[in-house]
User: Fold this.
Amino acid sequence: MLRLYALLAGLLFSTAPLATAFDPSDYGYPLTNPFEATLANTPAHLQAPMPAIDAIDQGDYSLRLRPEREHSLPDNFWPVTSLQYRLARQSGPAPLIFVIAGTGSRYDNGTMESLKRVFYGAGYHVVQLSSPTSYDFMAAASRLATPGYSAEDARDLYRVMQAIRAQQADLAVTEFHLAGYSLGALNAAFVSHLDERLGQFAFKRVLMLNPPVNLSTSVRNLDRLVQTRVDTGDNFYEQVLERVTRFFQERGQIDLDEALLVEFQRSDHRLSDEQLAMLIGSVFRLAVADIAFTSDLINRRGLITPRDARLTIGTSLEPFFRQALWCDFDCYMTKQLVPWWRERFDGGSLTQLTDQVSLYALEDYLREQTKIAVMHNADDFILGPGDLGFLRRTMGDRLTLYPRGGHCGNLLYRDNVNHMLEFLRG
Assistant:
């Protein structure tokens, strides 16, 4: 009875601040279909102002972090024996923000370039980092090349960030910030937690954009979007290409811009929700195949590439990659991540691993740290039952919840950008 009374009292008299949520009628982002929003992003006329790329003082740099792999990796991997990153410099002293890419993505993908323009335009030095799940990071920076164990991924990222700071010692930095989108947002939370102990950066603000809450739930949701087997022989992709081709023929030109999908979806050739979901899921499946193939190859596990296989520049990797495509994220976890975790970290059940790699592991830290904020969308399909409840009770008013936008589709929408910069500026 006392426990019940305490629970009721907590619900009735709690002073915890509430998440900032927007009424759908007051939020001007136009795409109401989460799959369309994810693929189309923000129409150009609704994006926040950003500097042009040629107005940014930037350059690509490389780090030799795993020289021992330069001779152990196949010749095909020579471009990624050094880790590349991109730095955009302000003309004088300024805050620096590290930005971490999403699943399987390199530092220079489109979303990273857009976020760089947003933060650079607001006066930040910007460092763009590849995801720990990208093949270049796995080959050139990861100690164990088995991504998915969030604490270890954070340690790899932290070493990279320290090496960048040493390499760019002449850069005048007033304070450090951290941001990430999708899986990169989850990575940012674990990096921030690690920095509390190591104290190299003392991040002033940490911004998490559309993070997974339960990593296992999110990747299974993405895997389910692939509703047909990869090698069925189904002509799904040919059908999509044929529709897009007819659309461009009717327009009389090929104009690939942010508004393409919006216009395409208003035409007679529009794709169904199932087809849009298949496209998104296929991109994720390709990323997972890359992770499974690269981790197996670097660690010589023999699951996809035979241990004694000699790969040269002339070796076709297609047969191995086709085999990797059969392996979804559950397969990667079961065959590579879980056995590795049990051997190295004395791990137990899959449920225990899920708890350790998800935001659940940082619940107390996230609740206490006012320097961390989350921005998310209510219709993001990577979320599962209870995920938004977790974010609401953990983040309070540091959760900004938009009614639509899919998965990262509204990152460049002017209201979203304003909220990002307001948080970073305190």
Summary: Confidence is low (pLDDT under 50) at residues 1-15, 228-233, 251-259. The longest strand covers residues 173-181.
